Fold this protein.
Amino acid sequence: MTTSIPLGLLPDTATIAADGSLEIGGCSLLELADTYGTPLFVYDETHLRNRCREAVEAFGYQNVVYATKAFLCKAMAKLAYEEGLLLDVATGGELHVALSAGVPADACTFHGNNKSLSELRMAMTAGVRQIVVDSFDEMDRIDSLHGEGLPVPNVVLRITPGVHAHTHEFIATGQDDSKFGFNLGNGDAMRAVERARAADSMHLLGVHCHIGSNVFAASNFAKAAEVMASFAIPLDLPELVLGGGLGVAYTVGEEAPTISQWGSVLLDACAAMGVRSRISVEPGRSIVASAAVTLYSVGTVKEIPGIRTYIAVDGGMSDNPRPVLYGSGYEAFLPRAASSERTETAHLVGKHCESGDVLILDAALPSGVVVGDVLATPVTGAYGHSMGSNYNKVTRPAVVFVADGVARLVVRRETFEDLLACDLG
Ligand SMILES: Cc1ncc(COP(=O)(O)O)c(C=O)c1O
């Protein structure tokens, strides 16, 4: 069965203009490609704000901590903070960007399974809202910084609850066999609570879990909430953090719970267990993924009779490594003919020197894709730009935010000079 690109995979303000071309935020995708070049990330600002507001509505003001690893630049940090979200930063670099955006340190939660001494020093000196402590070694480092006279940080302890989320093994994090957190099953979690409670170097606020990313099964979240509630209730601590991980639909036929439905699952499970602590969550993907499309230019159409057609674009694994990393699926469409039936099949590939540099295997595409066409892949707002690289010294794409007919360049395209910025010769 062939389909045109479903509107449900496009950002909230996507509309088809009278000439059949696609507009987002009142801006023509073809004009954006013309003005800013390709590859280009186009984010619908209204969509971003809608998802932030949905999350705040579900969980309450400042009970939503945006996981910046999904997509971070100063404009995104400011937008999330303006909408009443706090920020989850997982490295000194993410903290630096958040602070540079003007987000106060006490709106930032500091994560990471292997925070260095200097990252912890940075976080404690800046006065982050809380540190999510991941290991006994990290506790040793916090003790030693306390010895240097740094302020005592608020901490929550990351617990691995022994819940195996249904997702790709690289992004499942809640099972016992994990590099993250204190294991609940073997007693480490309770030992960590006892140590944190007894320490002068930290102030224990609560416990945290994050079972994985791109999880669709509401039952996985409910199970984790129940396991964490059973552990947390007797501790009688003020905070319970239930992580992020809500999946999103990337391809035709996929369906994910909404943020509001996710909120009900988690909050109902906690209420049923009798949790009285403040409950917060850390969504990343579900806030930003479907807010963006990536625009590419087609450079080569290679037909191999009797075998297949390859359509090569001017980006690839350097702006979207997810297909290579996880075998993730995407869709593609032609912004100049957004409602065209996609009757053809081709491998959509990038420009990198690897046969594995594939964006979409057997992509459904309209007929008549030609060199010079602008192609778009939707749902590229999460873990694309943020996981991108300079492989083959390809410069990172620009990012524009669009709203009300106005495009705002928020990250400029890298230049060849940027490629040499750290190269001392
Ligand atoms: C601790 C933690 N919180 C939140 C997130 C965000 O997850 P997602 O983008 O799937 O919502 C992650 C992602 O890996 C994470 O490790």
User: Anything to note?
Assistant: The chain has twelve helices and 20 strands. The radius of gyration is 22 Å. The first helix runs from residue 29 to 36.
